[in-house]
Write a structure and sequence with these properties.
Length: 339
């Protein structure tokens, strides 16, 4: 069988090609992608290829590099010894952007009938947001600010609401992103940069400032700006991982205001069920239940579908800001099987 895939052969280069795919081996399943969600912050950083020496980015991104880690699809074939999965089952995985992918059966999760592909494809980003919420340890009645309202930032807004924040302040320069955050529970929206937000945040909070500030942009400059928005003894959660941390500065007030800076990465969420509630199955199950109850809404955050065959144009639109506001998915079902 032949399979299309998206690849970055080198920095600033996008390539779409086909390859032969073998039948699944023992304990493996061959899956056909339906949708794969683009994580723009991560994938554009991988495409730029500017990483600090010794950073996890430099270790992870080896060219040629296959981007993507959020796929929904169906089981095409199962290998020997696979139980609990059969051809036609709808599944979710952390596979890259490719039409057909062979995975260990344990890395594939069935999608409940009541959950759409447009909702299931969010699971890896939900896990990232859950890691940030866990590190933040938001308590009932606290005030939360979210800097950067891309896909992960929008999920953080929903997590902050679910964890009982009394005020969720969404900060971004794009009014359309702010409208989306408001629809998902943000109590206040500020159409400005983090650098310009101090006075407005002070007015909203009566001068107290913010208990928990989520920095989700991954921009080098924003950490020092986030620090200024936190109250004394406040917490700053770094959920946007910059590829060049050597260019970040703490800014003033970390020591004098006794602030806590917390890193958060999806790897915090374990594959081991013994890890308690912070394991992938538990986080995923809770996400699906929140969808069913209406507490979470993710399908409406998908702004468009793109053909994988136009991957180069899609990444270019994401780079130059001409893509629709919201998440973009590669639509693999639009490619006729066998083409």
């Amino acid at each position: 069988m032949k399979s299309w895939y998206v690849e970055f052969p080198a920095p600033h280069t996008v390539h779409v090609a086909r390859e032969d795919v073998a039948p699944p081996g023992e304990g493996e399943v061959l899956c056909r992608s339906t949708l794969s969600l683009i994580s723009p912050g991560t994938e554009l950083a991988c495409l730029r290829g500017e990483f600090d020496p010794g950073s996890n980015w430099e270790e992870w991104v080896q060219y040629p590099f296959r981007p993507g880690y959020s796929m929904a699809g169906v089981v095409e074939q199962v290998g020997r010894g696979v139980t609990g999965l059969r051809p036609g089952d709808r599944i979710q995985s952390y596979a890259p952007h490719q039409e057909l992918v062979t995975l260990p059966a344990g890395e594939v999760r069935r999608i409940p009938d009541e959950v759409s592909d447009e909702e299931a494809v969010w699971v890896p980003l939900v896990v990232t947001a859950a890691a940030g919420a866990a590190r933040a340890a938001i308590t009932m009645g606290e005030t939360v600010a979210v800097l950067g309202l891309g896909p992960v930032g929008q999920l953080v807004v929903q997590y902050a609401v679910a964890h009982g924040a009394s005020r969720v302040v969404a900060i971004d320069v794009d009014a359309r992103r702010l409208d989306m955050a408001s629809a998902h529970g943000a109590t206040d929206t500020l159409a400005m940069t983090a650098a310009d937000a101090l006075e407005a945040v002070g007015e909203l909070t009566g001068g107290r400032l913010i208990d928990v500030v989520f920095e989700v942009t991954g921009s080098n400059a924003v950490l020092s700006q986030a620090v200024r928005l936190a109250r004394p003894l406040g917490r700053i959660v770094l959920l946007g991982d910059t590829p060049t941390p050597s260019r970040q500065t703490l800014g003033a007030g970390v020591v004098s205001n006794s602030l806590t800076i917390l890193g958060a990465h999806a790897a915090l969420v374990s594959d081991d069920p013994a890890a308690g509630p912070l394991n992938r199955d538990a986080v995923t199950g809770l996400y699906f239940r929140r969808l069913a109850s209406g507490a979470f809404n993710t399908a409406d955050m998908i702004a468009g579908r793109a053909s994988p065959l136009d991957a180069e144009g899609t990444y270019q639109r994401l780079r130059d800001g001409s893509a629709p506001v919201g998440a973009i998915c590669f639509d693999w079902s639009a490619i006729p099987i066998g083409d």
